[in-house]
């Protein structure tokens, strides 16, 4: 056998394997706008193709991880949290407190203590709002 014959034989075998490994063509279906909208509502955020497949085959497929779609209430809670964060100057205040503690000049007066507790309340409120917006159930601390 010559080198070119070996090459031809190997390349034709490789092409045959690639053809066998191809995935089947996808199945498509034409839907009216009303039908598609109805299916999208029934799917409730799940990928439409996966939902239709589960309906047709009668089995529940393993759900893919997907990014959470925020509701209007979630967006409002996030907006409130971000507004509170912006108004509080919290990061700047905490940085100043940390600097004062590090150099030993933080006087512990009732006013200072109240300001620290106010910052702590702000942090807790931010946490509660963000956790709520992200869909976690949060218990309100007394």
Descriptive account of the structure:
- It is a single chain.
- The chain is mainly alpha-helical and 142 residues long.
- The protein folds into two domains: 3-57, no CATH class; 72-133.
- The protein has six helices and no strands.
- Helix 4 packs antiparallel against helix 6 (110-133).
- The longest helix has 24 residues, at 110-133.
- The protein starts with a helix and ends in a 9-residue tail after the last helix.
Question: What are the defining features of this structure?
Answer:
2 domains; single chain; 142 residues; elongated; 0% strand; 6 helices; mainly alpha; 67% helix
How many beta-strand segments? 0
Separation of the first and last Cα atoms: 88 Å
What is the number of helices? Answer: 6
Query: How would you describe the shape?
Result: elongated
| Beta-strand content | under 5%
Low-pLDDT runs of 5+ residues are none
Mean pLDDT rating: 75
Structural class: mainly alpha
User: If you compute it from the alpha carbons, what radius of gyration comes out, rounded to the nearest whole angstrom?
Assistant: 30 Å
Helicity level: 55-70%
Please trace the helix and strand order, writing H or E for each element. Answer: HHHHHH
In summary, what is this structure?
This protein is an all-alpha fold and 142 residues long. Helices cover 67% and strands 0% of the residues. The protein folds into two domains: 55 residues, no CATH class; 62 residues.
């Amino acid at each position: 056998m010559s080198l070119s014959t070996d090459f031809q034989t190997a390349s034709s075998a490789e092409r045959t394997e690639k053809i066998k490994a191809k995935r089947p063509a996808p199945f498509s279906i034409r839907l009216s706008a009303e039908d598609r909208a109805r299916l999208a509502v029934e799917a409730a955020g799940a990928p439409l193709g996966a939902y239709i497949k589960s309906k047709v085959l009668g089995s529940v497929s393993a759900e893919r991880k997907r990014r959470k779609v925020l509701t209007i209430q979630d967006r409002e809670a996030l907006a409130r949290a971000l507004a509170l964060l912006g108004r509080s100057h919290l990061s700047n205040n905490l940085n100043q407190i940390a600097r004062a503690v590090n150099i030993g000049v933080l006087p512990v007066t009732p006013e200072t203590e109240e300001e620290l507790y106010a910052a702590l309340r702000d942090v807790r409120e931010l946490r509660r709002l963000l956790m709520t917006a992200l869909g976690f159930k949060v218990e309100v601390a007394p």
